[in-house]
Amino acid sequence: MSNNQNAIYDARQLGRPRMLVLGVQHMFAMFGATVLVPTLTGLSVSCTLLFAGLGTLLFHLLTKRKVPAFLGSSFAFIGGYQAIAPMITGENGSQTANTELLPYACFGVACAGLLYAVLAALFKAFGTKAVMRYFPPIVTGPIIICIGLTLSSTAIDSCRSNWWIALVAIGIVVVCNIWGKGMIKIIPILLGVVGSYVVAAIAGQVDFTPVAEAAWIGLPFQWQDTLFGLFSRPDLDTSLLITSAVTIMPLALATMVEHIGDICAISSTCERNYLVDPGFHRTLLGDGLATSLASLFGAPANTTYGENTGVLALSRVYDPKVIRIAAWLAVILSFSPKFAALISCMPTATMGGVSMVLYGMISAVGVRNVVENQVDFSNSRNVIVAAIIMVLAIGINYSGAVTFQVGSATISLSGLAVAALVGILLNAILPGKDYEFGTDLKGDTSVNFKV
């Protein structure tokens, strides 16, 4: 019997109390990163937890309950939310959500989720290698680098509200990442948030009035924050809907590559080939539909979580039932407005400190993707593709979106959207492609946005 079979057998013999403890551990691992995304974008924390849980359960259903993966909030789409619905900064440095525009951003993310279904069908029809040749590291790497760089000013603005609180968060995340052991190393974001939050509270920098006023039990989302509420508005802006879709959908290029890397990593950890059974087409479909479902109700995009893969390796219990327990715990927690208020009271500087590390590491992941795939920059076509992607992404971000008319609708494209589209097209047209998926496992799994 293999190690993987032993691990699954042992999980069934643990009994309900120990299974529950393992489920809590998995929820603890995903928690910090999952709630950070709505805090940075202005989306509902409660709704995020609800659809992280429900999205995970949907993923397990579509993958025949075989893959022990948890789906939490995706960092890669933060740039898309910021492009369509940037946070509003007050005079004291505090940030509030642009509630009028957030549902439009969610529409774009919902469309991006549907791209997963298209890619899943292509994988099923043509195979992984044939499809992935159009998404090589020379395209995905520079795009990921630019995702982090375009978000960098937001992190600095948040840190400026109180630099010493931000530095506490940065210090904890760095220390846990470098010197942490076991679970400490797996949850640096959560520890950084909690540590900085506690220090700020002790220093009297946090107003807990909203927490005291919030109810213990309530609904996780409001109708007006959903896409259903958006489409019932009399002043629906069709141009902004199209802009959102065209701006955000190309970001799925990076997240789909990340998904493939995560499934490879889970397969390696569990010593089982999930790439074949249940197959990439099922895991991609589950991830994409979970993202679209979450976006319909105003929650962030979902993605498979590396933190939970770390817990699998730590506990050596690979039974997907443990992940489903964590999913149900997230659903239950989502019905507490008081808990959501506690998260919403988090100091802006705490978010700034953590996001400074996060956005920098997103760019570093792009560099890693290029380096570990040994992209040949002595090849002129690779230099041209990377150069044009990066100049378009950064240049348009600072000079203003590309705007044009389609009939009566005004379409605006962000730098990331233009860069992704042009990069894919250039790579497809220019001769000399030298990337083949599956020849280097380390390179194929080098895209992971988790801190």
Detailed description of the structure:
With 451 residues, this protein is mainly α. It has 22 helices and six strands. Strands 1-4 form a two-stranded antiparallel sheet. It has a two-stranded antiparallel sheet with strand order 2-3. A hairpin with a 5-residue loop joins strand 2 (88-89) and strand 3. Helix 2 (16-41) crosses helix 10 (188-202), helix 2 (16-41) runs antiparallel to helix 16 (306-315) and helix 20 (380-399) runs antiparallel to helix 21 (415-429). The radius of gyration is 21 Å and the shape is globular. The model is unreliable at 1-9 (pLDDT under 50).
Summarize the structure in short.
The chain has helices at residues 3-13, 16-41, 45-62, 78-84, 102-126, 128-132, 137-159, 163-179, 183-186, 188-202, 209-213, 227-231, 238-248, 252-270, 275-296, 306-315, 320-333, 337-344, 348-372, 380-399, 415-429, 441-444, and strands at residues 71-73, 88-89, 95-96, 302-304, 402-406, 409-413.
